[in-house]
Amino acid sequence: MSDLQPARGTHDILPDEMRGHRRVIDTARAVAERYGYDEMATPIFEFSRVFKRTLGDTSDIVTKEMYSFTDKGGDEITLRPENTAGVARCFMSEGLAQNAPVRLFYAGPMFRYERPQKGRLRQFHQIGIENIGTPGALADIEVIATGAHILDALGVRDRTVLELNTLGDGESRDAYRAVLVEYLQTRIGELSGESRERLTRNPLRILDSKDEGDRRVVADAPIFSDYLNEASQAFFAEVREGLDALGIAYAINPRLVRGLDYYSHTAFEFTTEALGAQGAVMAGGRYDGLIGMMGGSPTPGVGWAAGIERLAMLCGDPPPARRPIAVVPVGDAARIPALTLSEGLRRAGFRVDMAAGGNLAKRMKRANKIAAVAAVILGEDELARGSATVRDLQSGTQEEAPLASLADRLARYR
Ligand code: ATP
Ligand code: MG
């Protein structure tokens, strides 16, 4: 029954996969905390204008990918396709400027209407950090270092490459845009329809096009770095110097542009060849134009977002679930004592599964099936003595232990 399937591009995250996601999120949060980041969350939906105004009318996200609807009260609502705009909105509406600079970490679902494929979903999940209020290149370096550190901690860094570019300041971008448009005009016949449209509205995005024909044209385009003014060159030099000092290797990719209009200076992406076509793992940059564009007083910002599904895939097998202790009552008289014992062990911090269905053989079978580390067997004779049998399910050895000191006996299974 297709209406009982999850909607296209979404899927259920069952416990095994969830542990994989948790590992990514928990590792990232713990590493980011060392750099001063505290976790926060913005709503999963916002007024559409939060994204429309910031992502620009010509970005892929706004033109094709947003889940937007009019709610019952007539408000235009969009499920967040990314979280930088939401965090910036929050920075303004919560008056966080008072505390600037702020360092914020988030993890949660994002929604984009895309063609689903491996590593590309309509509901996917991101972790991300935003450092808002810090203008200098040191912040860019630190933001990249935080990302690199997280990839290290996840054990996937050696399968990624850090690609780095600069988009310069506004003056440099204007100068470059002019020569780029001039060049692209000469080869307009070879551009895709989409890129021809971008030519007037957002020509820089053409550099990022995935269309074959566009890519051939772009290959011969003027290079951004030739049009950087001195201040922008100095900024980029400092970013590289800092990365060098930290031993963070990078490859300059002059074609790397962030898809969105509000970025300036640093743009970077950790990419991998291990995931097929979906190579972008973590992407970010400096967005000094964003908050001003949203109507706030101009405030610098820098950050990145990473796809949790893609990171979890890179990490491979998810960590195993914690193995429980099976409490196995033998005979009816042992049922309630087993119940209270289980409860007590849980209060003492153990994961406990009470196997009370069927006969003893069936109960022991269940203990094995759930990969219990040990079984605590409560028989009538033992109960009469105030004790229980503890069987190590790995070695098969067993011993009788007084109920009063059971938690201590079980300590090694905690
Ligand atoms: P792509 O080039 O793969 O479309 P993007 O440039 O649209 O990526 P960003 O908007 O920079 O991606 O988002 C940051 C990260 O979020 C990406 O590097 C990727 O890991 C992840 N991501 C983006 N879109 C999806 C998606 N539809 N499904 C799963 N992960 C995604
Ligand atoms: Mg995309």
Q: Could you characterize the architecture of this molecule?
A:
The chain contains 15 helices and 16 strands. The strands form three sheets. It has an eight-stranded mixed sheet with strand order 1-5-6-11-10-9-7-8, sandwiched between helices. It has two domains: 15-169 and 229-315, BirA Bifunctional Protein, domain 2, CATH 3.30.930.10; 325-413, Rossmann fold (3-Layer(aba) Sandwich). Helix 1 (15-34) runs antiparallel to helix 5 and helix 5 (137-153) packs parallel to helix 9. It is α+β, with helices and mostly antiparallel strands and 414 residues long. The radius of gyration is 28 Å and the shape is elongated. The structure holds adenosine-5'-triphosphate and magnesium ion (MG). Adenosine-5'-triphosphate binds at residues 82, 112, 114, 119-121, 124, 126, 259, 278, 280-283, 305-307, 309-310.
